[in-house]
Structures are given as C-alpha cells and as structure tokens.
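call fold target=Nucleoside-diphosphate-sugar epimerase
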Amino acid sequence: KILVIGASGQIGVELTLALRKIYGGANVIAADLREENELLKGSGPYVSLDIMNKEMLHVLILRQNITQIYLLAAILSATGEKNPNLAWHLNMQGLLNVLDIAREENLHKVYWPSSIAVFGPTSPKQNCPQQTIIEPTTVYGISKYAGEFWCNYYHQRYGVDVRSLRYPGLISYKSAPGGGTTDYAVEIYHDALEEKHYECFLSENTYLPMMYMPDAIRATIELMEAPQEAISVRHSYNLSAISFSPKEIAASIQKHIPDFTISYKPDSRQTIADSWPQSIDDSVAQRDWNWKPEYDLDAMTADMLKNLTK
Ligand code: VAH
C-alpha cells in the first residue's frame, strides 16, 4: 500500500488522486496534519499525521502495511524565510524519519521532491545543469539540497530505493499553492477572472522555471515506475517544462481576457526569485527515463482558465 504524506497540499491532492486512479482508492492512504482536502473526500482512506512524530509514523506504516511512501510535506521558500528554524527542522527531520523507517522496514520505494530552489546565485542562469555550482541562499533551498545528500546516502549505504525530482514552480487549479515564491503564477489566473487585474509581487521580467501540474504528476509517476537500473541520479533529477516572466504569462492571459491588466509591486520574494536559475537543463531525465513535458504556456493558460471558470 502507498502512503502520501502532505496529501492535502498543492501537489499532494493531485498526486493522491492520480495514484488512486492507478492503484485503487483503498490502496493509497492519504495523510496530513491538516484536515482532508475537499477533493479527496470519498476517494480513499485519510489519516491525521504529524510527520515529526516518528513513532506514530512507524505504527501507521506497520498497521496499514505500507510499502511505498510519497513525502510531500514541507515548508516552502517564502514561508521558510519567515520561520527558518521550523522550515529546517520540519523539512529535514521529516525526511530523516521517513528514510530511517524505510530502511528499517525495507519499504519498496520512497519519493521525496527537491526543487530548483537548491540552486543559488552562483549557479548558471540559463540551462542550469544537473551538476554544477550549487550554493542555496534560502532555508528551503538549503534543506532541499541537504535532503538530496541524505537520499543518496540511504540509497548507497542501505539500498533504499528513494527517488527525487527538482520541481520547478508548479501551477495548478485544484488546490492552493503553499507559500512559495512562484505562487504568483497561480494567483494571477484567479485574479484575472475575478478582478481582471493582478498586482504581481515579482518584477515584470523575472524569468523562472515553471511547469503545469499535470506534467509534474506524470513526471513523478513515470520516475517511480522506471526500472531501478534506469535511475542514474540518486540525489535529485533536474526537471524542466517552460520558463516565463510575469509579463509573458500576462500576455498569455490577455489572449483570452483582452482587458486584463497587471501591475508590479516586488516584495521580499523578489530576492528569492533572483537567486534561482531562469531555465533548467533536464537532459539527464530525458536520457534516463524519457522525460518529455506536454504543456507550453498557452496550453496551460487555456486549461487553467477553462477549469477555473467552471
Ligand atoms: C516555492 N513553489 O516557490 C516552490 C518551488 C521552485 C519553487 O520550490 O518555494
């Protein structure tokens, strides 16, 4: 059975629904500290879980015959800068709790997301490679990079089959984003429909690596279903789809809502965004497990506006 930790979050909701479609609702246990997301209700079992309580997690895994864990619980970049100690503690100890139980109970597989936030101002801005200078400048990025080394360690030393992707900014309509710097690219669609105006907290030419959630969910499942021998990266795979700026996503929206306007009022998140690469080289993921994105900016905009209008 599969356990999804952080199942009520932006990625968790969609990943839980996708896994339940493949493996059956009863075989995917959704867990979160928060209450069950509306979209999950009725689709399978839901349990309350504090990832920091290792004993409770261990009992849950034994009681529910869990063989795979997807750990999505984390504090993201913007929130993390407001609570550095909590972000480090939760992001790090949560992963170590899962990895140690996976080793002890010999679980089949573990999935844990990293992020393009591991890269810092000294990493190449364009086509940032899988291996390069990596000096994160946010607590979130530090915790994700440290986590990558722990994943590699548990694989090398104990044979834990833990797999990871460095997600770009993710855009979705099913559930709200969780306090990241890329959240503007979700808010803008909601405001375009409700106010026909969006005040953006990043400057107009802030290019960032982004991806539509359906692509991110498919990448996760394709990685987890790839044969072990195909996986050459046990830290975390670079993953790429689209890069755009607030100015470009606004133009994409204006093709559907001509009188939509945008204004810019950069805040502290601008510094975080400026520390990240503008585009990512994911040629290793393409080579190892045939990664290929499907949504470009205009296709994402059309699908977001269609589904948010419903
Ligand atoms: C964040 N959405 O903004 C996350 C993601 C690359 C960005 O890690 O923190």
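return ok
The pocket of (3R)-3-hydroxy-L-norvaline is lined by residues 76-77, 115-117, 140, 168-169, 180-182 (CB under 6 Å). The radius of gyration is 19 Å.
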